[in-house]
Amino acid sequence: MDKIALTDKTDRRFMKAALKQAEKALAIGEVPIGAVIVQDGKIIARGYNRRNTDHTTLAHAEITCIKKACKKVGDWRLEGCTLYCTLEPCQMCAGALVQSRIDRVVIGAMSPKSGCGGTLLNILQNESFNHQAQVDTGILEEECTEILQRFFKALRIRNKEEKKARKAAALEESRRLSLPEGPL
Fold this sequence. Notes:
This protein has five helices and five strands; from the N terminus they run αββααβαββα. By secondary structure, the protein is of the alpha/beta class.
């Protein structure tokens, strides 16, 4: 087996682990984004989106992963590590990845609204910074896209049903208030 095929097989395996993290986010009603950090062929940290659950914008999958990996290796530098993420990192996460000296970032789905690993910006490979990461994209892209689409489809349906229920409750309240009081 050639090196490219071996790398692809390895990348797929670790992206599946990141997808398992995204499923955890989905299970608690969060946008399903997951990440894992790998060092020497082993996962050393896992994370998933918890912004709403933890009530902080800092609870992105990548940031959680970086914190756990730094604790595991006992250093803020994560040289020799690869981050696998199901969605292209935002500007905050891309900046944190550069600051942590991650060597490689493997992305499942690109993010046309917030991606800073090559879509809107490419913070990860900006030569003005003192560190750049290798970026590889499209690993299990269909699976990474599908979980996000499933979440947002369900969210739109839920929002539509909640709007309908609020409208019905307001109509009922209006009817109740317009009825005369006492015996007829």
